[in-house]
């Protein structure tokens, strides 16, 4: 089957779900955890159904590549949620306006990531680029495990924009622009969207090389990436209260990035099958999430005694 069909199916499914999401969230409001969890389930179900469609129509290789790339992007997105919390805190954005900010931030990410991936797919045709991406991912892995540079960087971006762009000192409801002395100025809500966009560009420097190492097919890497991103808002509201409980998640993400970096750097010595990559990624996530939850239970018992 021509891949153009898969692009059309993706556009129809993703477009319909975005429209439905807009209809459900027309008003600025607090998103309860139960509602967010249901929405997360719908987004995951959509991704799984599309992955099965890829399996059936284009074979096992593309199907496994899709699910592997989707899991990598989804897991890295969870780590990015910590940064979203920091950004919303810096701009003092109330809970009921956060969904709107994330919607526009993710809308921009859909466009920017396509541009990045188009360039990345072409660059990967040059063999030496694999080594460059391998080194980049190894650095990202070390930074993920040992540092918190992402949060500090986003704090600096937010503070710089607040000081150097003319904005209103307070919010004006959920408006991006308001009037001060008959002049139109941006509100902190608009600045927050820009910082979210800039943050996603930073995230893309890690996640896009990672998925490019798993597949060279633009259909696979873009659709898996976008399905993960589209569900990110619902995931944020579903688990933001419990993010701190995933204390060891960064070690799992670091291990995944190191594995993918090794896959690129050793490409001329050994070929690692995509099925093995998928198994390693799932195992790393299960171990780190399971260990985090187990440690939380031990701490709770210790606190009660």
List keywords for this structure.
about 300 residues, single chain, about 5% strand
3D structure, described in words:
- Helix 4 (95-123) runs parallel beside helix 7 and helix 4 (95-123) packs antiparallel against helix 8 (218-230).
- With 305 residues, the protein is mainly alpha-helical.
- The longest helix is centred in the N-terminal third of the chain and has 31 residues, at 60-90.
- It is 79% helix and 3% strand.
- The chain has 11 helices and 2 strands.
> What structural category arises from helix and sheet content?
mainly alpha
The biggest sheet, with number of strands, parallel, antiparallel or mixed sense and barrel status, is: 2 strands, antiparallel
Strands, count: 2
Give the helix proportion (percent range): over 70%
As laid out across the biggest beta sheet, the strand order is: 1-2
Low-confidence stretches: none
Strand content: under 5%
Total number of helical segments?
A: 11
Count of individual domains: 1
Broad shape: globular
Mean pLDDT: 82
| Integer-rounded radius of gyration | 20 Å
Distance from N terminus to C terminus (CA atoms, Å) equals 62 Å
Task: Sketch the topology as an H/E string, one letter per element.
Answer: HHHHHHEEHHHHH
């Amino acid at each position: 089957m021509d891949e153009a069909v898969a692009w059309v199916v993706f556009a129809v499914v993703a477009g319909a779900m975005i429209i439905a999401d807009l209809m459900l969230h027309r008003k600025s409001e607090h998103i309860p955890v139960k509602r967010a969890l249901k929405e997360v389930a719908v987004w995951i179900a959509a991704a799984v159904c599309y992955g099965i469609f890829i399996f059936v129509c284009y074979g096992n290789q593309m199907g496994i590549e899709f699910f592997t790339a989707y899991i990598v992007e989804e897991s890295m997105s969870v780590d990015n949620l910590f940064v979203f919390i920091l950004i919303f805190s810096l701009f003092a954005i109330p809970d009921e306006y956060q969904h709107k900010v994330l919607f526009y931030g993710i809308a921009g990410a859909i466009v920017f990531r396509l541009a990045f991936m188009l360039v990345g797919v072409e660059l990967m045709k040059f063999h030496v680029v694999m080594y460059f991406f391998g080194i980049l991912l190894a650095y990202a892995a070390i930074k993920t495990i040992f540092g918190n540079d992402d949060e500090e960087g986003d704090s600096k971006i937010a503070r710089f924009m607040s000081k150097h762009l003319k904005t209103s000192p307070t919010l004006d409801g959920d408006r991006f622009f308001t009037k001060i002395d008959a002049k139109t100025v941006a509100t902190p809500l608009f600045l927050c969207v820009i910082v979210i966009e800039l943050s996603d560009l930073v995230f893309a420097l890690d996640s896009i090389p990672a998925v490019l190492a798993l597949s060279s097919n633009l259909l696979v890497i873009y659709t898996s990436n976008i399905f993960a991103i589209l569900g990110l808002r619902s995931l944020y509201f579903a688990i933001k209260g419990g993010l701190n409980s995933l204390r060891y998640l960064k070690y799992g993400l670091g291990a995944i990035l190191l594995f993918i970096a090794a896959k690129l750097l050793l490409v001329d010595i050994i070929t690692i099958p995509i099925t093995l990559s998928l198994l390693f990624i799932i195992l790393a996530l299960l171990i780190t999430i399971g260990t985090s939850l187990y440690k939380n239970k031990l701490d709770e018992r210790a606190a009660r005694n």
